[in-house]
Amino acid sequence: MPELPEVRHLALQMDGELRGRTVAGIDVVQPKCLNVPLSEFERLTVGRTATKVTSRGKWVFMTLDPGSTFLLNLGMGGEALVHAKGEPLPDNRQVAFRFGDGSALSFHFWWFGYVHVVPSAELSSHAMTSQLGLDPLNDVEFAWPAFDRLLDARKRTAIKAILMDQKNIAGIGNVYIQDILFAARLHPMRKAGDVVSEERHALYDVIRSQLKHALELGGLAYEKDLYNQPGGFKDFLVGYREGKPCPVCGTAVQKIKTGSTASFICPMCQT
Amino acid sequence: MPELPEVRHLALQMDGELRGRTVAGIDVVQPKCLNVPLSEFERLTVGRTATKVTSRGKWVFMTLDPGSTFLLNLGMGGEALVHAKGEPLPDNRQVAFRFGDGSALSFHFWWFGYVHVVPSAELSSHAMTSQLGLDPLNDVEFAWPAFDRLLDARKRTAIKAILMDQKNIAGIGNVYIQDILFAARLHPMRKAGDVVSEERHALYDVIRSQLKHALELGGLAYEKDLYNQPGGFKDFLVGYREGKPCPVCGTAVQKIKTGSTASFICPMCQT
DNA sequence: GGCATCAACACAGA
DNA sequence: CTCTGTGTTGATGC
Fold first, then answer.
1. What is the model's pTM?
2. CA-to-CA distance for B9 and A22, rounded, in angstroms?
3. In chain B, what are the domains?
């Protein structure tokens, strides 16, 4: 459940499903994913009522009135599931909320995830979320001039590193970046300063259209949503298609190391 | 006048020459090499008497009693010269001290240098000198176990970078490092973790012997001391001898880029 | 596939 | 042949 489309889809589902439910208890199997001691976590959640769920980048924000905000990051491939009253919780959960009506919300991470709560008044000092960058699906804040300036300010940084830095744009990870760069015909290591205006416009458009499209499909087909249903996005152009033909020119897709992450590129189309 | 042998030689000469002289006035042509405004610099120097001159790394420390310490770094190829009463000062000086007895001490830098003064009580907060590493000519502090641990602590750093980092060992620059690495048969980019014990011992011995030898000769032949006399060290093995034969195997010495500095190596002997 | 931290490296500036 | 900051990259661990 990693990147913006999955996270936003989940937040939208949670917003529709959980509004009005009151936290009756917390079920913590792995305390180290909490940002505060369990007792403090309980104090800030139990007895409070979910009134709104939103997302920014890879983070889900759930308002727990009065006065708390719950913050969730599912890391690499984690899941959040809602459970009707009486349903057993998954054995592999790290944390779960039990609501007053008998329903529950469980979280499972296969590697690392963050289950945080902060007093809403202190939300701005929550380090992992307070510095998140622009929302690429918000046309007001992710405006073209801001994007253009961002690339100017980091002229000698690889374009992939810029787009994946959550402080710049929030929500692009190592999955969606692959086809975004392919569609913009950019090599991941191209320096931002060498990306000319026409390419920048193409890239800007592709970022918005790809993420919007994936969101409309409910995210990736190999991820599960709040109701354990897979998303509909599965047709990668080059991402994770090592050795398969480029859909444009037929050249075999290469998997290369780009810094510490892997990239899938068409060596002919992306320069 | 750059590295440890020249700086220590200069400090020894200054110690013998200047003890007891009182600063009568300061002559500042280039105020930007000072660490404080000229008025403050004068306040901390004029009327005070040199009582001791020492060195650590590439820095000269002159105690100006009561209460001040003068700190000098000649940068790349700067000079410090003493002048008898009545002698004119060099036109190219950036700064000079005039002493009460009519003598003077002038400083010239061909690129950048530092002419600092601090209250002796605040010496430990002078950033550029407070973190200087071990004195390689002091057998007590530059002991074998400390050197061995240093290389363990920086396993994946190039050996040249470690030796030239003034925070580790103080006084080795891009001149003496050349023959030190050649004599130890080490390629400059070799990772410290790959330098085995026998090589480490050889390197440790070479650092001490080379610097000691150069100090005994009064430093480099192309540098001038306090009395404008050149040093006696000129017989580089590979340093600055690009294309000349390696003294051991006859292979042509190569000049290569190692990070941001140049290195002269025998490609056969140094691995 | 996440994020933070630290070390290493490159570059510009003085 | 100086040293310092800044920004970027890479490895590590949770």
1. 0.89
2. 78
3. 4-125 (3.20.190.10), 144-265 (1.10.8.50)
